[in-house]
Amino acid sequence: MTKIKLLFLFPFFYYYCFANNITINQNELNLISNDKMWQKLLHIKNKKSEIISNDFFISKEKNHLYKKELIETINAYTSNNLKKDNTHPLCKYPARYHWLSKKLDFINYEVPNYCTHLKKWSVYKNTQSISLMLVSGYLGNPASTFGHSFIKLNSKEAQNTNNLFDLSLNFGALVPDNEAIIKYIFKGIFGGYEAGFSDKYFYTQDLIYSHNEFRDIWDYELNLNTFEKQLIVFHLWEIVGKKFKYYFLDKNCAYRVSEIIELIKEEPIIQNAKYWYAPVETFHKLEEINKKTPILKKVKYIPSSQKVIYTKYSMLEKIEKKFIIKAIKTNYKDLEIHLQKLEKDEQINILDFLLSYEKYLLIKNPEVKDKKILKNKLLYLRLLLPIKENKKIKIKEKKSPAMGNKPMILGSSFTSLSKIGSYPTLDFSIFAIESLGQNSLNFNELIVGNTSIAYKPNSKENLFINEFSLIKIKKLNRTALDWEESFNPSWRLNIGSELIEKNSKTTNDIFITAGIGKTFEISENITSYYMLDASVHSKFPYITVKPNINFDFDFNKLKNSLEFGYEVNPYNKNTNEYLKVSAQYKVLDDFSIAISHENSSYSKSNVNLKWFF
């Protein structure tokens, strides 16, 4: 008999009898099917699984009810008549069995020999630990603007610096090649794509994020016991290749990665995810939990390849830098002859750096044949010189974004306009990494949905919009290589509205402002940049141009900015001097005080109390 499904009545309970003498009463079955853990394994939300692949389920019912799925799962595990190959439930659903063995009279799970696919999966026996990886934001791709997260399975064998041959599991939308950007954004927001987990070597992730997009990565190694580690590995096996609906704003990579960690932690990781969920929120929660119970073993910073090459260059002597600049600018003309004029140590340092630099360029553009030939030439010259121990590269540790401000802000401020006086405001941002905030963006900025509502009694309208930013971005591009003369512009964009004064009255001006400029790193704590901003307004003069120079200062808890420029009206060529001074001070991890004053055709001051959550 394939399965026995006898129901018989005792005084109070129905009993389900399965093969291999396993008997479960109705009450126990209900408890297991309603257990949060069972529903997490099935990815149940609102009584329905979010996995849309039918082959993830044993039950053939359309709604995939979790009690029915539990009964069918136990039937399948206890059946003696199923074919013992890779299609067997013990091979397809090891995590379910692994967990159920703690609830029912199952023997502890061991992968059967006939599960050849699972046994060949490289992480089955080799996983030493599990990490969550946080990748910094990237403005070159809308889906990566707010950062990214994925899972890395750290193997016993991988002993190199960043364990490039560990397996990583990445959740992403299945997007057709050459998809139009507008279509991509629209379908991504409204659930037009399917998505799933894919497993690849960490090398491929490192190549994309660190070498091509120059993004920093933080490796959060989890503190797991053997059962927890095995449960995650087995569950990842169950869901690799299975399809979900993809929603860019909430049901995204961060959400699905957090679900995996919730398998082993009762305290919820996913919070504030009803309409919006950013990758950094997972890591803020991990840091929070870690203060109470040690969920993290360690956090490791993996700098981008650009940061590594910049650091290597900064470690060279002045004469070596001068030689390298000339060599690159002359396309390595007579390189061997010029090298002979230097000391052996200087030759070694120069060639070691040039090899690293050309490799850095080659990874970005692997099809450039001339670069391959040049790299081989440099390698040949280096082999002619003695072996020398490489200098240790001391890259300044960059704090994880999760060690800074949380991305949502609730604020209470007091604003003063020169003509109409003072009024209180209530402010809210759905996502904000501020230029003057406590973060690792180094004065870059990304703000979405910032709204400030003002209250002024005895005015024409008691409640009014003081300020609104649909999106506000500032990207400061820096270079530390003296020969890179190509213009790598810094830029900013601001789309929104603000309350302004016109002819002694207030009105809301809707605007789009875009600026382009250049950034200079004056010191570790001071950054300067100039911008040429152009704005389109809903109010006269409709178009303005503003050349300006800016200075940003970082004194740890206190950050300041100074902006000075001229607002030019192209209609009548009138100009107004523009000055803005801002400062923000961190009082607590989740609380800061900010002040600002700006002066142009009118003056505006603001004091703001900010809570981050």
Summary tags:
613 residues; 17 helices; DUF7843; single chain; disordered N terminus; Lnb_N; alpha+beta; 4 domains; 12-stranded antiparallel beta barrel; 24 strands; flat
Structure description:
The protein contains 17 helices and 24 strands. With 613 residues, the protein is an alpha+beta fold. It has a twelve-stranded antiparallel barrel with strand order 13-14-15-16-17-18-19-20-21-22-23-24. The protein has a seven-stranded antiparallel beta sheet with strand order 11-9-8-7-6-10-12. Strands 1-2-3 form a three-stranded antiparallel beta sheet. The longest helix is centred in the middle third of the chain and has 21 residues, at 344-364. Helix 13 packs antiparallel against helix 16 and helix 16 runs antiparallel to helix 17 (369-383). Strand 17 (490-502) and strand 18 form a beta hairpin. Mean pLDDT is 89; it is low at 1-13. The radius of gyration is 30 Å and the shape is flat. The chain folds into four domains: 6-113, no CATH class; 123-302, no CATH class; 316-383, no CATH class; 404-612, Outer membrane phospholipase (ompla), Chain C (Beta Barrel), CATH 2.40.230. Helices cover 27% and strands 34% of the residues.
